[in-house]
Write a structure and sequence with these properties.
mainly beta; two-stranded antiparallel ribbon; 10 strands; 0% helix; disordered C terminus
């Protein structure tokens, strides 16, 4: 499964990363999972392996991000409770970044949340009657050209 996670320090500096985790998240290890930075210059390493911590029974699964693929990499980022005990991804939480991995991000505790691709969130606007020949106003996303797939 692919996830995009944004981490943000207390100063508001944020970094997006992509995680590839097996469907059974509690079984994630560096041989079957990896992470990659999407925003360069925020942390020292650009990617590596993931390792699940916990997750037995109803306990949440923390994810440790290591600097290399395989067991030789050392973890420098911990995303706490990325998954709940049933294996479903949580929407947000906290984690830790160690000092030796920090560049633009401040080391220590950070907030994290699941995020979506590079596209900004669509803004909604309502078309006036002058924009269309019918009498109803219509709501559409900013990327729409008004030519279909809109909500009335």
């Amino acid at each position: 499964m692919q996830y995009q996670v944004t981490i943000q320090d207390d100063d508001g500096t944020a970094c997006r990363m992509s995680l590839s985790i097996p469907f059974t998240s509690h079984g994630a290890n560096p041989s079957n999972s990896h992470w990659q930075v999407l925003d360069q210059g925020m942390i020292k390493f650009q990617g590596g392996g993931c390792s699940a911590q916990g997750g037995l029974g109803t306990n949440p699964v923390d994810m440790a991000l290591a600097s290399g693929a395989g067991a030789s990499g050392s973890a420098g980022i911990w995303i706490n409770a990325l998954f709940d005990g049933a294996g479903f991804a949580n929407a947000s939480g906290v984690g830790t970044l160690i000092q030796s991995w920090a560049l633009a991000l401040r080391p220590g505790t950070f907030s994290w949340w699941l995020s979506t691709g590079d596209a900004p969130a669509a803004t909604s606007k309502t078309a006036s009657n002058d924009d269309y020949s019918d009498d109803d106003s219509e709501t559409f996303s900013s990327g729409d050209d008004g030519g279909g797939d809109y909500d009335s």
